[in-house]
Amino acid sequence: MTERLNVLVADENEPLRERLAEALPRVVGDEDVAVDTAEAGDTEAVWDALETSRVDCVVVSTRMTNGDGDSLSSAVQVEGVPVVSYERTNPSDIDIENLGRVVYDAARNSVGSLNHRALFEAVNVGLAVRDLETLELVDINQQYADLLGDDPESLLNTFPIDITADVPNYTAERARNEVNRAIQTGSNVFLWPIEGAGDEAIWIRVSLTVAELSGRRRLISTVEDVTEEQRRERELESLKHAVDSVDAGVTITEDSVHKYANEAAARIFGYPDAESLVGLSWTELYDDWEVTRIRELVQPELDETGKWQGEVQLKQLPGDTIPVRLSITALPDERYVVVFQDLTEQKKRERELERSRDFLERTQRISKVGGWELDLETNTLAWTEQTKRIHEVPLDYDPSLEDAFEFYVPDDRERVRTVVERCRDDGVPWEEEFQIVTAKGAELWVRTRGEPVIRNGRVAALRGTIQDVTTRRNREQELERTNAELEALNRIVRHDIRNDMTVIVGWAELLSDHVDESGNDILQRILSTGRHTIEITEVARDLIETMSGGVVETHPVGLAETLDRELASIRHAFPQATFDVDGEIPDVAVRANPLLASAFGNVLNNAVQHTGEETMVTVSVTADDDVATIEIADNGPGIPDNRKDMVFGKGEKGLDSSGTGLGLYLVYKLVDSYGGEIHIEDNDPTGTVVIIELPVATPE
């Protein structure tokens, strides 16, 4: 025999009241229970219903109060009628289903004869009852067992974490926290991954509610498979992020209705914001004739290829129409990504370009830059007069595309065809230099530029310029030849001078035992001058190697080894001078190259040459994690403050600088190329200190 349950729905919100009254019979009743619902919109109507009819349960909004301002739910409970209260003004379908189950539990004691198992099995979601203290399963329905992929008897011995999929951050502790939140607040809804038949996790929505069943407090849980829903939400979210990042207008439609629009789309359509477009059909954005054209033209291609691109007339919110380039991409389930680009300014520019052609022709004659245009619809090529002058053809010459290709030398002809085809097929512009042979046999270098002309969403023509750059290319080639010749001459001069001076110095050294005291002074001057000439050739060689190579490549160079080697060399060259190292040289590597030795050698040489008798040179080195500091001090006369920056030729033009020598200019260039710094300070009591700071090399 069918049992009947009478439910009174009380809420001042009429649409919500009607929605609940309509939904509760479906989520509470089944073949054994018939649910009748009545509605009450105010307190007086509730009391009338309680006094004049049978009410097994009152479903009441927490916002309703009695005449004294007290919650109506509390007042009705005093009358002894089961009461189920709710707070949400827009409950979801799941909320309503949960509400239906609570209504059933609340009315059960008053009705008494409801078929619990029939109702338990009738709900269309997985349902489980757990002991509130131990969380052990007391009962489940078949939907719950089917969803978790096991039989009811086996599932009764499991806990939530036993069936959790291997997904990061979904741990036993998190599961306990979700359950505790439901126990503390009375309910909780969350997503959870469980093990599926394969390797992929199944996502379920879990709704926990604390309720009293048969005099005992239970934890009621409903579970629903939302894997597909989650996948679609993630996919839609990815699409939203993608379209939010572009400047063009972008919408996503589903079943012809906009589900998403970015702000650029709202701006193009003339709407105040993107939200104003959501919910509108795409047909509202076009005139009727354009809607018909789009359906006839676009839909067949979308069905066949999934994509379409072209130009349409869009109807803005004020009623005006504007040209836009439309790009549509089909997605599964009747969804489309639509990209809009406003062509208003482009069309305006195209019209202005057409009007300015005559002006452009005059400008070309003045600047000696020719122009050309290839119409892809008619496959005709047009040259301006200046272009014809460059090719040395008559002004009435009518070129074809193949004729134009033939002017280019064979080695460049295929490359020219490639850039033209890429611009025609893909809209890729170019700017490159080629060689041509004119109609009169002159060989020229030309710089050509080309770009696409877009009409109705496709490349309709190519336009560009051509300029004779032969003079510049000849100058560049001549400069390269001159540089090569100078470098060769430089190597020859340095080689010959160095060899000759080495021979002179060698023979002069042999004379030291064959001259008297008066001749020895002259001999020493010869030796000093010869050695200095050799030094100049070495410095010149190092300087050219440093300055001619562009970017200086550096690598870790041992500081102690390099400095010790240069000190040994300078001691041998100047036995009369004293070279002292203050402390130990740190065993570190600096960013440099082999020319670092030349830098140290030139500073040490300079310290000896500009110091009188009893020369004393002191070297000290310190280093930290970032910088190594080398100080080379002498006891000479020192350098005035106004000359300290000038000794390196800083601020001057290279070899024409007013520095004190080519060697120190080389030192400055080398240290600077290593990323270091060099400066000069006074020594105490007299003399000069050259301070070099070099970056310490990090381990590679």
From TrEMBL:
It comes from Haloferax larsenii. InterPro entries: CheY-like_superfamily (IPR011006), HATPase_C_sf (IPR036890), HATPase_dom (IPR003594), His_kinase_dom (IPR005467), HisK_dim/P_dom (IPR003661), HisK_dim/P_sf (IPR036097), PAC (IPR001610), PAS (IPR000014). This is histidine kinase. CDD domains: HATPase (cd00075), HisKA (cd00082), PAS (cd00130). Residues 492-698 form the Histidine kinase domain. Residues 430-481 form the PAC domain. It comes from the Archaea. It holds the Pfam family PAS_9. It is an enzyme of class 2 (transferase).
